[in-house]
Amino acid sequence: MSASLSAQSIVVASSDQLSADLAGEAAVLHVPSGTYFGLDEVGARIWGLLQQPRTLAEVRDTIVSEYDVDAARCEQDILELVARLVEHGLVEVRVS
Q1: CATH code: domain of residue 52
Q2: pLDDT at residue 4, as a whole number
């Protein structure tokens, strides 16, 4: 996981991507590289939240309020997912 990511990191979907809702799941394409990601229902919800700049703590709190998941586990999973998305150019980390 990227050492620069934390719950306080502000993240937003990159402008270099295209995404589509697929019956509650999401397909995301990084246009310059052609890298494609498929996201399940929870991943798609997180992706939807990342369409506007927000902290990962805000994303975590929203997911915890909507799903039956432990907050610490949720945060870890979000950090891992977002690190992968950042690595593939699908999400940008903004300086607060």
Answers
A1: 3.90.930.60
A2: 82
